[in-house]
Amino acid sequence: MKLNKDKEEKIFEKSFSSIFITTFTTIFIAELGDKTQIATLMLSAESGKPIIVFISSSIALISSSLVGVLIGKWISKKISPSKFSFSTGLLMIIISVFLAYDIIKSYI
């Protein structure tokens, strides 16, 4: 009985750490050089109050992440994972086509 509980806890810890590391890395890399980081840099330089800018921008990022998590949880209850993966993949392809067209049209 204790052995099963230890295995379950180990699986939970592995799952938690895997999800945590993947999420942190993805968001961190996505935000590097993003307009949010540039805006934060400018606000900090203009105000001369980096701590206040850090706290307020952190709260803003947490709030927008919370919205994404809540919407993601709601969507996961409505759509199967395979349909969700297909839909998001299709959406990314459509966005990529529009962006590519926007760049290429100036050369045509």
Give a description of the structure:
The structure is a single chain. The protein has one domain (2-78). The longest helix is centred in the first third of the chain and has 30 residues, at 2-31. The protein starts with a helix and ends with a helix. The protein is mainly α and 108 residues long. Helix 2 (35-47) packs antiparallel against helix 3 (50-78). The chain contains four helices and no strands. The mean pLDDT is 88. The chain has helices at 2-31, 35-47, 50-78, 81-104.
Question: What descriptors fit this protein?
Answer:
mainly alpha; 4 helices
What is the element layout, followed by pairings?
Layout: H1 2-31, H2 35-47, H3 50-78, H4 81-104
Summarize, please.
The chain is mainly α and 108 residues long. Helices cover 89% and strands 0% of the residues.
Task: Label the structural class.
Answer: mainly alpha
Whole-number tally of structural domains: 1
Share in helix: over 70%
Give the rounded overall mean pLDDT: 88
> What composes the largest sheet?
none
What is the rounded distance between the termini? Answer: 70 Å
What Rg, in angstroms, do the CA atoms define?
A: 20 Å
Count of DSSP-assigned helices: 4
* Topology as a string of helices (H) and strands (E): HHHH
Task: Return residue spans where pLDDT drops below 50 for at least 5 consecutive residues.
Answer: none
Shape: flat
Indicate the proportion of strand residues.
under 5%
Count of strand segments: 0
